[in-house]
């Protein structure tokens, strides 16, 4: 209704359509005019705009919110996750090329570290597309590429062509470029790329729970690594053997069956260990030793695990994760062999070296459970703060109840806890070790009674500890006195135990020994930290070269000074004050 609007309103509307700022005009108005303008604004909101008016702030008719339309027009297009995953995999090929060209394993490790982020987005179609674009039909790696496609269930994919719509768009400039595209397609993939894609195939099959297919493919991949015989495959081979052993453990029949594939692959692992030791391949050597120990423990071959440890030397500069695993399996072996002191030392080091990330929480919990049982077998009571950790509280609940029963020395509660949580203890692999704690519970109960009573009869000991007879109580008390658990004497004629007065513990050597153990642990940690530091290679030669060049410059400068070609000003010195 343009005829009914005020005289000034069409001017304002026309000014707004012309791009003028209404705020600037409002700043020039004064009190009464400003109030009048407020009324005009209200009228402007009510009056609909004309058909020819196209304000820039108006939203599109199909969009209820104008800001969303602006974000869609101004924002950058989102990247396709499939194309992003393919680019991430192909970017690792460049790392492998540099690792081979410079003979530097750090670039290979960088490509292996990216697998954890790639595996979340990896699918058979993506991996098949990467394989099809990497290998040509007549290339040397084409037979192995077909085996990978067969393993992931994509045998119909042909090599040497691009599959996705996104890749077709990317291929157009290459086709227009002529020779450039032909050169890129003709580039042969190095064997390290073959093994890297083989590892991705193993990861994909493991995540898909295709155990049998993964085990068969892993055998082919191991044979290919042994046929290539390249030192640049050391870090990749360690990862291949890891998944190879993992598939063997999960393939039926499962350990501890003698027909399990985990038993049949031991000759292959031993041969790989012998080759790695001769080549000084640290990564493969550390990985294979850990896998063999795990295999021996899964079938309860403790003597073979002990022989392996005694006849091999674990590399000192191995990766921290492999060191933590080795210490854990070594501690479990020593605990089964009743060598609790060594087991406690190894398990403590394993828990300290365990990664603090959430992905390694299961290892930390398993190592801590075994460490708690070993401490109880040694006669010590674990610290209560261990059970209060947020990540450990739920998993260690049965062990907390077990520690309480052992600390009090209540044999009845101890047997009840074992019966209630037997499945948990069997699943953790600590059930047989926990059964050994019965004598420790009895010794703890005797120790508590020796501290509480100066004299107590054997009958009362039998009743309190729920023992079968007084003869059994007499035997247990005599053994505790002989082992040094308690300071007491046994009177067999009158049938009682008499405790001795407890001396000052600080007068003994126990505090000094504990302090010495802590100092030794700190020094060992310092030595390992120094060994783990990386220094540039041949840095001393560079320093000697720089020193030699500096001496040459000094000789030339001294010679020029003697000949009079240089003065103080040329040397840059300030001798005005002299």
UniProtKB/TrEMBL annotation:
Domain PCI spans what residues?
324-504
UniProt-annotated stretches for the region Disordered:
1-80, 548-578
Q: Which Pfam families match?
A: PCI (PF01399), Rpn3_C (PF08375), TPR_PSMD3_N (PF25573)
Mark out the compositionally biased spans (Acidic residues): 64-74, 563-578
Q: Where is the composition biased (Basic and acidic residues)?
A: 1-11, 18-29, 548-562
Q: Which domain of life is it from?
A: Eukaryota
InterPro entries, alphabetically?
CSN3 (IPR050756), PCI_dom (IPR000717), PSMD3_C (IPR013586), TPR_PSMD3_N (IPR057985), WH_DNA-bd_sf (IPR036390)
Which keywords describe this protein according to UniProt? Proteasome
- Its signal peptide is none
What family is reported? Belongs to the proteasome subunit S3 family.
Recorded protein name is PCI domain-containing protein
Species name: Remersonia thermophila
């Amino acid at each position: 209704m343009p005829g009914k609007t005020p005289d000034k309103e069409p001017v304002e509307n026309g000014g707004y359509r012309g791009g003028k700022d209404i705020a600037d005009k409002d700043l020039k108005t004064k009190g009464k005019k400003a109030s009048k303008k407020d009324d005009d604004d209200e009228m402007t909101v009510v009056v609909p705009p004309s058909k020819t008016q196209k304000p820039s702030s108006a939203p599109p008719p199909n969009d209820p919110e104008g800001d969303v339309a602006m974000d869609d027009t101004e924002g950058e297009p989102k990247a396709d996750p499939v194309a992003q995953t393919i680019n991430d995999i192909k970017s690792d090929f460049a790392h492998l090329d540099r690792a081979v060209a410079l003979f530097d394993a750090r670039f290979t490790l960088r490509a292996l570290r990216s697998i954890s982020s790639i595996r979340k987005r990896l699918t058979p179609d993506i991996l098949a597309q990467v394989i099809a674009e990497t290998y040509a039909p007549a290339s040397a790696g084409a037979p192995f590429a077909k085996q990978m496609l067969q393993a992931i269930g994509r045998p119909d994919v042909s090599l040497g062509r691009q599959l996705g719509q996104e890749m077709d768009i990317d291929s157009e400039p290459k086709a227009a470029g002529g020779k450039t595209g032909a050169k890129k397609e003709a580039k042969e993939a190095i064997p390290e790329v073959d093994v890297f894609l083989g590892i991705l195939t193993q990861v994909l099959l493991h995540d898909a729970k295709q155990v049998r297919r993964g085990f068969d493919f892993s055998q082919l991949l191991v044979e290919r690594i042994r046929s290539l015989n390249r030192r640049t495959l050391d870090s990749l081979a360690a990862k291949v053997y890891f998944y190879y052993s993992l598939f063997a453990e999960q393939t039926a029949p499962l350990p501890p069956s003698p027909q399990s594939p985990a038993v049949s692959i031991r000759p292959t692992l031993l041969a790989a260990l012998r080759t790695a030791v001769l080549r000084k391949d640290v990564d493969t050597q550390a990985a294979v030793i850990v896998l063999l120990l795990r295999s021996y423990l899964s079938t309860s071959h403790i003597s073979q695990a002990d022989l392996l440890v005694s006849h091999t030397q674990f590399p000192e500069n191995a990766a921290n994760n492999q060191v933590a695993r080795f210490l854990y399996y070594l501690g479990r072996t020593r605990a089964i062999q009743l060598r609790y002191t060594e087991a406690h030392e190894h398990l403590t080091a394993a828990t300290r070296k365990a990664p603090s990330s959430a992905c390694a929480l299961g290892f930390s919990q398993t190592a801590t459970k075994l460490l708690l049982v070993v401490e109880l077998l040694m006669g010590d009571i674990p610290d209560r703060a261990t059970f209060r950790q947020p990540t450990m509280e739920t998993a260690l609940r049965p062990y907390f109840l077990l520690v309480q029963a052992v600390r009090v020395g209540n044999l009845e509660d101890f047997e009840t806890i074992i019966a209630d949580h037997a499945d948990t203890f069997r699943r953790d692999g600590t059930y047989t070790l926990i059964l050994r704690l019965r004598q420790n519970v009895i010794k703890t109960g005797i120790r508590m009674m020796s501290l509480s009573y100066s004299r107590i009869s054997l009958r009362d000991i039998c009743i309190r500890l729920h023992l079968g007879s007084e003869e059994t109580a007499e035997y247990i008390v005599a053994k505790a006195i002989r082992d040094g658990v308690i300071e007491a004497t046994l009177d067999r004629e009158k049938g009682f135990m008499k405790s001795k007065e407890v001396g000052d513990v600080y007068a003994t050597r126990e505090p000094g020994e504990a302090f010495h153990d802590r100092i030794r642990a700190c020094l060992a940690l310092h030595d390992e930290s120094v060994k783990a530091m990386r220094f540039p290679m041949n840095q001393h030669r560079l320093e000697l070269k720089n020193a030699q060049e500096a001496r040459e410059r000094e000789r030339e400068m001294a010679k020029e000074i003697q000949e009079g070609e240089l003065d103080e000003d040329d040397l840059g010195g300030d001798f005005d004050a002299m």
